[in-house]
Structures are given as C-alpha cells and as structure tokens.
Write a structure and sequence with these properties.
The chain is 56% helix and 6% strand. With 134 residues, the protein is mainly alpha-helical.
Length: 134
C-alpha cells in the first residue's frame, strides 16, 4: 500500500494538462500504435507479466518514467498504461480471436499460433482493422 501511495504522489507531481486536440489525438491514434509493440513483447514465445509487457513497450517508444506517469484530466490511469492495456485487450480476444492469452494462474501473457500468423502477415504495423479482419 505504501508503494501505491508513493506512486500516486509521483503521478500527481508529474500530471500535465493537455488541450482537447492533444487528448483526441492520443485517444484516436496513439492506442492503435501500441498493438504491434505489445504483440512483439511476447513474440519470442516466452510468457511475460503485464509489467514486462509495459516495460518492453516503453523501451520501444523511448518513454521515460515521467511520461509513463502522465495523466489526462480526471483519468483513472496514466495515458501510457491505458494505451498498453488497450492493446492487450484487443490482442486478448476483444473480437473473439486470441492473438495472445493470459494465464490466469501465473498472470503472464503468451503469444498464440494465431498471433504468430498475424505478425507474419503484418510484419510492421497492425491496426484494429487488421485485427477485425484477420
């Protein structure tokens, strides 16, 4: 609990206000760009805890600790963490196809055969449209 309180204190210290345009850009475009690196985080077939997936994506986007803690307005979660969670949700069966799975016992994500096929078909960027149609 003490660690959570410290994290919340840090978040409050680093919170920034964004314009409505910036918020819309983040919500409309950025989350989709998190799909490919999120899938890549488990591409080697090894199970990854959510924290490891977030860390991997942060490295890909050169996201600092401070940027990982940025909130928008009254949001409940930092923007970065929310975007990674968005990608995990889409990859973990939002449209009925599981490109990654979550082992409820270990809490780790792992790529599926379908996820490997998706990456092979779309080696660069993967969009929500690609997920829906695959």
């Amino acid at each position: 609990m003490r660690e959570m309180a410290q994290l919340l204190h840090q978040v409050i210290e680093h919170a920034e206000e964004f314009t409505a345009t910036e918020v819309n850009e983040m919500l409309d475009t950025e989350p989709q760009h998190y799909i490919s690196p999120t899938l890549n985080s488990v591409l080697d077939g090894q199970p990854r805890l959510p924290e490891q997936v977030h860390d991997y994506v942060a490295v890909v986007f050169h996201t600092s600790k401070e940027d990982r803690l940025k909130y928008q307005g009254a949001a409940r979660y930092p923007i970065f963490e929310n975007n990674v969670a968005f990608a995990l949700g889409y990859l973990n069966g939002r449209y009925g196809t599981f490109f990654i799975t979550l082992d409820k016992k270990t809490g780790a994500y792992q790529i599926t055969e379908r996820g490997l096929a998706l990456r092979k078909k779309f080696p660069k960027e993967i969009s929500i449209k690609d997920l829906k149609e695959f």
